[in-house]
Amino acid sequence: xxxxxxxxxxxxxxxxxxxxxxxxxxxxxxxxxxxxxxxxxxxxxxxxxxxxxxxxxxxxxxxxxxxxxxxxxxxxxxxxxxxxxxxxxxxxxxxxxxxxxxxxxxxxxxxxxxxxxxxxxxxxxxxxxxxxxxxxxxxxxxxxxxxxxxxxxxxxxxxxxxxxxxxxxxxxxxxxxxxxxxxxxxxxxxxxxxxxxxxxxxxxxxxxxxxxxxxxxxxxxxxxxxxxxxxxxxxxxxxxxxxxxxxxxxxxxxxxxxxxxxxxxxxxxxxxxxxxxxxxxxxxxxxxxxxxxxxxxxxxxxxxxxxxxxxxxxxxxxxxxxxxxxxxxxxxxxxxxxxxxxxxxxxxxxxxxxxxxxxxxxxxxxxxxx
Length: 370
Hints:
Layout: E1 2-5, H1 8-17, E2 20-21, E3 26-28, E4 36-43, E5 50-57, E6 65-71, E7 81-85, E8 87-88, E9 106-112, E10 120-128, E11 132-135, E12 139-142, E13 150-153, E14 156-159, E15 162-167, E16 172-182, E17 193-196, E18 202-213, E19 218-227, E20 236-244, E21 247-255, E22 261-263, E23 269-272, E24 277-288, H2 292-298, E25 304-307, E26 312-322, E27 326-335, E28 344-352, E29 355-363
Parallel strand pairs: 15-21, 23-29
Antiparallel strand pairs: 1-11, 2-3, 3-4, 4-5, 5-9, 6-7, 6-10, 8-9, 10-11, 10-12, 13-16, 14-15, 16-19, 17-20, 18-19, 20-21, 22-24, 24-27, 25-28, 26-27, 28-29
């Protein structure tokens, strides 16, 4: 302990008392229970914080000023030294020799934060009563190494830092992917995750946090993406890259295609005249989920026809139009005249991929001899 004397009287009084020092930063004046200050070991040392401790006692009234000097240099240069007002603390069980009753010791502490990892800091407790300033011995500590914070998703792993998720063809405004962050120090603040992607069918990226386990350094949350329905007709995929601090994580999103469906909006039975002839743009159909993008990826829808009649021929389709979501068109055919006195009918099987549809065509009865 060093003593700074501020008055001539105090200086003479200090000569009368004299003092000595012991090792380890503990210093005492020779008379029992005289003024003394001791800098103690820091506690709760983490990557970016620690708690400084010290004790003091005064021969007279309590000290007016109690503070820790704190620096990254053992010489405590003015430009790098901070002064933190000490606060009263409960007795520390690590130091039973500093009895707060018989010895009149008073424990002091102060928490320091926003420190750099793997860095050595120096500190000392200083007590002043307006006349004499008592300076405790210098102590030091080194902050812990920063553990690498790690972003993990709950999903199928396809490689180092890559996860695969299968997405429904219909997508949605908010599709969630649960994750957790390991080794997150609360002193870092709220995690900030950068999200990158390169396709136009993903939008509105964001994330929410559900829970923070400070004891174990785990933050739970969810990445949220808007994903539009897959009208392309083929499975599509993309990589979404997330960056947390200096870690990059990739998630592989695979979205199945919407299944096209053939629909006959006017039903499945059609009446034609006995005279027959060419029936163009006659039977309308619509293929849902077969829009322009699907056409560009898959080409013509490829309808196929089978007829159980000899009087119906040249069954084709045409007049196709594509919009964003659907395709529309017409079925065409040629019917021979019905010269019989009875109405006749036939069935046409329309095949689209794995779909089967049956159209019933009924031809009116003819007049004999025509």
